[in-house]
Amino acid sequence: MAFSGKYEAASQENYEEFMKVLKYSDDVIEKGRNAKVITEVTQNGNNFTWAQIYPGGKTMKNAFVIGQESEMETMDGKKFKATVKMEGNKIVCDFPNYHHTSEIEGGNLVETSTCGGVIYKRISKKIA
């Protein structure tokens, strides 16, 4: 159960550049710039529930099984199908517009997203 826990965003790199590549508006970018996103992960073997709670109460929640196609949702509510994989100690998923990995490093949740040559990284500290 390496991923299970509750994490709070502590730092991020290349946030604005990444959001611009995804064509988000300046007001959306500004709202999320210093947002303390809470990520709650429940892992039971290869079964995961992954929720991200944004300030103001918006929640994005995905349930998936490693290696099986699952219906997922993007942060702006678009539905898509993807097969989430494990590559070593990383969870890997291709969202419609970007490639995403998640791993635990030193007890922190490290999420890396890549799109159009821009690499966005969010590091979240475990709070529960």
Could you give the topology of this structure?
Elements: E1 5-13, H1 15-21, H2 26-32, E2 38-44, E3 47-53, E4 59-65, E5 69-73, E6 79-83, E7 85-87, E8 90-94, E9 99-105, E10 108-115, E11 118-126
Antiparallel strand pairs: 1-2, 1-11, 2-3, 3-4, 5-6, 7-8, 8-9, 9-10, 10-11
Q: How does this structure look, described?
A:
- This protein is mainly beta and 128 residues long.
- The chain contains two helices and eleven strands; from the N terminus they run E-H-H-E-E-E-E-E-E-E-E-E-E.
- It has helices at residues 15-21, 26-32, and strands at residues 5-13, 38-44, 47-53, 59-65, 69-73, 79-83, 85-87, 90-94, 99-105, 108-115, 118-126.
- The strands form two sheets. It has a nine-stranded antiparallel β-sheet with strand order 4-3-2-1-11-10-9-8-7.
- Strand 7 and strand 8 form a beta hairpin.
- The relative contact order is 0.23.
- The model has no long low-confidence stretch (mean pLDDT 93).
Query: What do the pLDDT scores average to?
Result: 93
Q: Helix and strand succession?
A: EHHEEEEEEEEEE
The coarse overall form would be globular
User: What's the β-strand tally?
Assistant: 11
Percentage beta strand: over 45%
